[in-house]
Amino acid sequence: MSLLRSIVVDDEPLARELVEGYVNQTPFLESAGSYPDALSAMEAIRNGMQAELLFLDIQMPNLSGLELSRLLPPEMKVIFITAFEQYAVEGFRVEALDYLLKPVSYADFLSAAQKAQRQFELERGAVKANVSVEERSIFVKTDYKIVQIHLDSVLYLEGVKDYVRIHTDDGPVMTLMSMKAMEEALPDTRFIRVHRSFIVNLDRVTTIERNRIVFGKVYIPITDSYKDRFMEILSRRLL
């Protein structure tokens, strides 16, 4: 399994350094940085910082960990850290993977991190799209069955919390997975991520208007984080 890129967000320096040290000593985690407040973490994420897992303090000035968690891309998972046990219920209400009470022991940290690892393995396994050798179709799990989707029929894919909605000529298909896992499984010369919640099939793009891709009445924004790569690939086809 690939390493889980992780960040730590905590306004207490000692607590932040402790958890970051735990990340660095855990074999299946990779540190993507640490931040002293939720605002700086949010800015880094909006500027393209890539991470799958956040160890997130709840009580922080200006923007709390709970508030930040509601603004995150759907594929990012959260483990809350706090000194106040009463936040546990609220933490799970926003679908956190786990909740750690300060001072955090490595045993508790490792248990929570392993839960995250199992969740990502489950999603990647359920969504491992199994692209055929000819890269013509994928198989995904949906509604307790496995269905084949021909890539030529796919218009775009949309992240919806822990699911991906695959928009095809025959209608949408929902599957439990992260956008990152789907992005990695699809042919990257045809399927391009243009937004944290959207991947488009470049072969089916007919109109681009004011940094938006038009599919009928649907307008998909091309955000700054993904614009350069999209334009680079598009330029190879531009006359």
Number of helices: 7
Could you say which structural class the secondary elements and strand pairing correspond to?
alpha/beta
* Gyration radius from CA atoms, angstroms: 19 Å
Overall strand count:
15
Provide the residue-averaged pLDDT: 85
Order of helix and strand elements from N to C terminus: EHEHEHEHEHEEEEEHEEEEEH
Specify the biggest β-sheet.
Answer: 5 strands, parallel
Shape category: globular
Strand fraction: 25-35%
Helix content: 25-40%
End-to-end span in angstroms? 41 Å
Low-confidence runs: none
Largest beta sheet: what is the strand line-up?
A: 2-1-3-4-5
What does this structure look like?
By secondary structure, the chain is α/β, with parallel strands linked by helices. Helices cover 31% and strands 33% of the residues. Strands 2-1-3-4-5 form a five-stranded parallel β-sheet. A five-stranded antiparallel β-sheet has the order 10-9-8-12-11. The protein is globular and about 55 Å long. The model has no long low-confidence stretch (mean pLDDT 85).
Helices and strands in order:
Layout: E1 4-9, H1 13-25, E2 29-35, H2 38-46, E3 53-57, H3 65-69, E4 77-82, H4 88-93, E5 98-101, H5 106-127, E6 137-142, E7 145-150, E8 154-160, E9 163-168, E10 171-176, H6 179-185, E11 191-195, E12 198-201, E13 207-208, E14 212-215, E15 218-221, H7 224-235
Parallel strand pairs: 1-2, 1-3, 3-4, 4-5
Antiparallel strand pairs: 6-7, 8-9, 8-12, 9-10, 11-12, 13-14, 14-15
Give a quick summary of the entry.
The chain has helices at 13-25, 38-46, 65-69, 88-93, 106-127, 179-185, 224-235, and strands at 4-9, 29-35, 53-57, 77-82, 98-101, 137-142, 145-150, 154-160, 163-168, 171-176, 191-195, 198-201, 207-208, 212-215, 218-221. It is an alpha/beta fold.
